[in-house]
Amino acid sequence: MKRAFTLIELLVVIAIIAILAAILFPVFTQAKAAAKKTQCLSNMRQLGIGLSMYMTESDETCFFFGHAVDVSRANPTVPFGATRENRWWNQIQPYLKSLEILKSPSDPLQRPHALEDGQAGRPLVKRSYVANRAAENLNTSSIDAVSDIVVITAKHGSYDDSWYEPPKNLYPKTATTPPVLWLDLQTNGVNNTFFDGHAKWLSKGALTSDPCGLPYSGVQLMRQYPIPPTPGQPNRTPWHPACPN
To answer: Left if phi > 0, otherwise alpha if psi is -120 to 50, otherwise beta: which for 118?
Structure first.
């Protein structure tokens, strides 16, 4: 006569499975997050390579700032305007394998710019990364610490911004909205691309230990090579009370 499982034995097996699942699921989740972080870092390395190639063919000068209202170091009197062509990623696009690298697997939203949102006949270019306005239109020969200054990093998924302004965007926009930078996107830190093209992860603590975000934020560049003020709008400023000009 075959012996069947008793109810107690069945409950014990179910309990063991539940315990194993409770142990293993967090491990799987952590492994999945680590894999996404690694893929994101690879994307940022490719962005660094593309930026380096662009700068090599542009007299070692970084991409310029295109905006509908604010001016650029490249043209301090009249805004270039906001167009698809002058988005920083499209400026370096000829040196990139694919615009797919603009998406971080760690970012569940990958919110695109309004000009590339897939609506009303516009193309859809999902994007997780944002460029540092402190770096725009600067030549590497004028920068002392090219391996310390972040040029590209992750934007918070709720924003479609092309650029971030340090030190202002290190801090929440309002009491109820996060900073433009997603400083804790990946295990309480975030991947970054630097002026010299290399990429690495930095902890949120390292990025915010100084109120100006130094040395990574590029605030030192803004002091050395000031960003031109917006004509007729003196209150439009990238500075923050925690880090005055």
So the answer is: left
Residue 96 is encoded by which pair of tokens?
Answer: 């990139």
Q: How far apart are CA 47 and CA 107, in angstroms?
A: 17
Residue 139: what are its φ and ψ, rounded to 5°?
-90, 140
- Integer CA distances (angstroms), 51 to 7, 54, 93, in order: 65, 5, 9
Count how many residues are written for the chain: 245
- 190: tokens are 């975030």
> Which residue do the tokens 């911004």 mark?
161
> C-alpha 159: how far from its chain's center?
11
* 192-238: pLDDT as tens digits: 999 999 999 999 999 999 999 999 999 999 999 999 999 889 889 99
Closest CA to 81 of 67, 70, 71: 67
Tens digits of residue pLDDT in 104-163: 999 999 999 999 999 999 999 999 999 999 999 999 999 989 999 999 999 999 999 999
- Contact present, 189 and 201 (Cβ < 8 Å): yes
- Cα 78 to its chain centre, rounded Å, is 27
Cα-Cα end-to-end distance for the chain: 87
221 and 137 in contact (C-beta within 8 Å)?
A: no
User: Quick one: tokens of 230?
Assistant: 């917006």
Nearest Cα neighbor of 87 from 180, 154, 163 is: 163
What is the bridge-based pairing of β-strands 199-203 and 163-164?
unpaired
Which element (helix H / strand E) includes 223?
Answer: helix 219-224
Q: Which residues touch 200 (CB under 8 Å, ≥6 apart)? A: 41, 191, 192, 194
